[in-house]
Amino acid sequence: MALVRILIDGYSLLHAWPELAPGAPRHSARARDELIQILTQFHDATGEPVTVFFDGAGAPPGTPKPHSSRGMEVLFSGAGQTADDLIERAAHRFQAFGEVLVVTNDLTERDLVSGFGSSFSSCENFIRRLGGAQDELQEDLENYNRAQREAFRRANRPPAPGKS
Q: Is 65 among the domain residues?
């Protein structure tokens, strides 16, 4: 089955990635925004739909509203819910449409979603996957730019002597 969505426990991923937003608290808006930016780039590079869940109950004022587009969603749990509750519900609902990948370091959560038939990844493995996608995108951009420069040079090369 095709991968239909990647479901990410946002704070679990942030806690496993201290290099992201160095010096910023793991629950800070700066750390969340940087993570969301990287996940958006990942989606743009791979085309894989991503939903990142954050615990939002009791969130400080100014916590952003849920953001949603076709391929990238950012959701905050409400009062009486956790991000894990939302991940479990989404994993169960998406299973009918194909493979779901859940990214978390919560072992209980991994066991539960695997019972629904979902795959899971540790946060550390997913961070490596993000790095690989960024490397591939960078290589693709370099190859594209090289090809465009060569096409420009060919198109703007002066005609050879004796040819008009």
A: yes
> How many other C-beta atoms lie within 10 A of the C-beta of residue 10?
26
Tens-digit pLDDT profile for residues 114-155? 888 889 999 999 999 888 767 676 676 777 788 888 888 888
Asked whether residue 164 is assigned to any structural domain, the reply reads no
Q: Does residue 59 carry a pLDDT above 60?
A: no
φ/ψ bin of 139: left (φ > 0), alpha (ψ from -120 to 50), beta (otherwise): alpha
39 domain-assigned: yes
Q: Which domain holds residue 50?
A: 3-155
Nearest Cα to Cα of residue 111 among 83, 130, 87, 127: 87
Q: How many helices (H) and strands (E) does the chain have?
A: 5, 6
Tally of domains within the chain: 1
